[in-house]
Amino acid sequence: MGKVFVDAIVKFTKEGNKIPLEIVWDDGRKFQVDRVLDITKAASLKAGGRGIRYKCRVRGKEIYLFFDDEKWFVETENR
Amino acid sequence: MKRVILHCDLNNFYASVECLYNPELRQKPVAVCGSVEDRHGIVLAKNELAKKYNVKTGETVWEAKGKCPGLVTVKANHPLYYKFSKYARQIYEYYTDRVESFGLDECWLDVSESTLLFGDGVKIANEIRERIKRELGVTVSIGVSYNKIFAKLGSDMKKPDAVTVITEDNFKEKIWGLPVEALLYVGNSTKRRLNNLAVFTIGDLANCHPEFLVKQLGKWGYTLWSFANGYDTGSVAKNNCEMAIKSIGNSLTTPRDLINNEDVRILIYVLSESVGERLRSHNLKGRTVQISLKDPELQTLERQGKLDFHTFITSEIAQKAYEIFLKSWDWSQNIRALGVRVTDLVEADTCTQMSLFLDDAKRQKLEMIDECVDRVRERFGHYSVKRGILLQDEKLNADPAHENVVFPVGYSRRK
């Protein structure tokens, strides 16, 4: 599916923001978020969902990580 | 100065939300339906592909499948649609505080005072349209006009994902050709009466003499005439504006037909519990109890009666409702749906007349018991406490106050 739910380690700042620091894939692999490049409200037709979209650089690649008010998921290419 | 009113109508709302969350549905005809097992098995929404097969909102699942054998039916997920409706509303509220909902999928916006900040009505409408698509992954049709009636007719014109403008210069061309039943508040009965007067289009209606319409339809005739001419001055309610509650009621379509008085008594208690709980939570008491009864042919009967005192006590409401029922139903038919409503409301704290005859202390005790049950349910759930009468048929138990479901307005006004 174009949507993979992940565990996420998130920093809650005193200004009320959430910054994802690390995500844990469903096979257990951990990926550190090198940098958050953009934060915006968006839907993902690929993944089938909507939420706050974090454009993140993870191990040199750019990924879209979403928080949909309840869970964190990553938009993926694979179906 | 002319107002700038938008009417935003989320396209095929429930179906669009389901297709967003389930990409594999998008290439198929989809209908979102109520539960067939609970006898709510009708189409609540369909997507564009299903529309092509002429699947209609309000028809039964089997009717729809007859027209479209490949139809995918999806069970309604009301909490999700309610959430989505709130997300859409958050976008609308960015532009104005004057947002009035009309069901979950429609809203009017009065942006007259927002144009200095955000641009004209069309610009705002297009921005909203793009944001709904981008942030929520569904589409909206928006009508822009100088009154609510035309804005709503406008949003109906181009679907999906479009903006239509109705101005003083183009409304005769765009609106007057429409059938009179397209006008808001013209239902089947008014349509028939107007057609009998040779009024078939909105233009026909607009060109009638208002006095003639008043003679035929009463005050409402004048209102409809002014709607047709673009004279509607109805304001868009500000959000967070608690409209004064005029009545509180609940109704249920039961999982099986009610076939005798005992069945009805059980259900009246279920509904009265819900109505009583809601009255107490709003600190209101009422004096008139109304019941509505629907038979398997979907014919509805409504009757009401007055209590001696304003009350929010469940058992008083239930007893009155049952008394009215016994006088009104001859059991020539079973009952498929039942409703209980309380009107004639006052604030619970206002002085109620002390009677010489009624035991006021006893009533106070009943009030306390009801309030105590409310507290227990708040903490442990609705089903943690139930009336003895329900032991006779637990399947009829329900919690209408919290399992309440708001259907898209289009469903209740389907033609």
Shape call of chain A: globular
- Radius of gyration of CA atoms of chain B, rounded to a whole number: 24 Å
The SS-based structural class of chain B is: alpha+beta
Q: What is the CATH C-level name of the largest domain in chain B?
A: Alpha Beta
Strand percentage of chain B, roughly? Answer: 15-25%
Q: Globular, elongated, flat, extended or rod-shaped: what is the shape of chain B? A: globular
CATH topology of the largest domain in chain B: Alpha-Beta Plaits
Computed structural class of chain A: mainly beta
What sequence of helices (H) and strands (E) makes up the elements of chain A?
A: EEEEEEE
Biggest interchain interface, per-side counts: A-B, 12 and 12 residues
Q: CATH superfamily of the largest domain in chain B, called what? A: Reverse transcriptase/Diguanylate cyclase domain
What's the main sheet of chain B like?
5 strands, mixed
- For the report, how would you describe the main beta sheet of chain A? 7 strands, antiparallel
State the domain count of chain A.
1
Query: What's the order of the H and E elements of chain B?
Result: EHEEHHEHEEHHEHEHHHHHEHEEHEHH
Strand content of chain A: over 45%
**N-to-C terminal Cα separation of chain B, in Å?**
36 Å
Biggest sheet, spatial arrangement of strands of chain A: 3-2-1-7-6-5-4
The stretches of 5 or more residues of chain A where confidence is low (pLDDT under 50) are none
Oligomer: heterodimer
Spatial ordering of strands, largest sheet of chain B = 5-6-1-7-8
Description of the structure:
The complex is a heterodimer of chains A (about 80) and B (about 425). By secondary structure, chain A is mostly beta strands. Chain A has one domain (about 5-75). In chain A, about 0% of the residues lie in helices and about 65% in strands. Chain A has strands at about 5-10, 20-25, 30, 35-45, 50-60, 60-65, 70-75. Chain A has a seven-stranded antiparallel beta sheet, with no helix packed on it. The mean pLDDT of chain A is about 95. Chain B has a five-stranded mixed beta sheet with strand order 5-6-1-7-8. In chain B, strands 9-12-10-11 form a four-stranded antiparallel beta sheet. In chain B, α11 (about 210-215) packs across α12 (about 220-230). Chains A and B meet through β4 of A and α6 of B.
